[in-house]
Amino acid sequence: MASRRTRLAAAIALVSLWALCGGASAKELHWRALEVEARLESDGTLSISELQRMIFTGDWNGGERKFRLGSGQMIVLDRMVRLDPDGSGATELVAGSLDEVDRYEWSSSDTLRWRSRQPTDPEFDRTELDYRLDYRISGALRRLGERAFRLDHQFAFTERDGVI
């Protein structure tokens, strides 16, 4: 009888440890895809439409996009939308407090954050959310010489949680 209780207690302890270590509600983020369309304007501005197909698991409240801006570069966000899962439409995100879902805010001059769920909502469970960001970066084309230029932009942002 004592060995049966010991085994039961050990099993309960193991399950509890597994749950505490994140097995029950691991926090994970990755991208199913990052699709980018870019057009270089004659003035050196890079116009970009970026589709992020993100997979959230756990207590994420939303997304973040950190832009690497070189010296003299400026970014302008023209539009941000969350695409409907069935492809039937989109919800435009608006600038505002991140206390509300479908709002975005610049937390610094190079970091854009947005809200996808309230902290009181159920956690994500391998939930795909697709966002399209339309933006422009001025000063993206750098002159290296009389007839030489370099495109200065990082399309697959390296400062992120998760893999693409």
Would you give an account of this structure?
The protein is mainly beta and 164 residues long. It has one helix at residues 2-20; strands at 28-40, 46-58, 62-66, 74-83, 90-92, 94-95, 103-108, 111-115, 124-138, 141-143, 149-151. The strands form 3 sheets. The protein has a 5-stranded antiparallel β-sheet with strand order 1-2-9-4-5, with no helix packed on it. The protein has a 4-stranded mixed β-sheet with strand order 3-8-7-6, with no helix packed on it. Strand 7 and strand 8 form a beta hairpin. The longest helix has 19 residues, at 2-20. It is elongated and about 55 Å long. It starts with a helix and ends in a 13-residue tail after the last strand. Residues 8-24 have low confidence and may be disordered.
Task: Tag the structure with descriptive keywords.
164 residues, mainly beta, 5-stranded antiparallel beta sheet, elongated
Distance between the termini: 52 Å
Strand share of the residues? over 45%
C-alpha Rg (nearest Å): 22 Å
Number of helices: 1
Briefly note the structural class of the backbone. mainly beta
- Biggest sheet layout: 5 strands, antiparallel
Helix content: 10-25%
Q: Which sequence of SSEs, written as H and E, runs from N to C? A: HEEEEEEEEEEE
Q: List low-confidence stretches.
A: 8-24
Please, what is the average pLDDT?
85
Side-by-side strand order of the widest sheet: 1-2-9-4-5
* DSSP strand tally: 11
Given the C-alpha coordinates, what overall shape results? elongated
In short:
The chain contains 1 helix and 11 strands; from the N terminus they run H-E-E-E-E-E-E-E-E-E-E-E. The protein has 164 residues and is mainly beta.
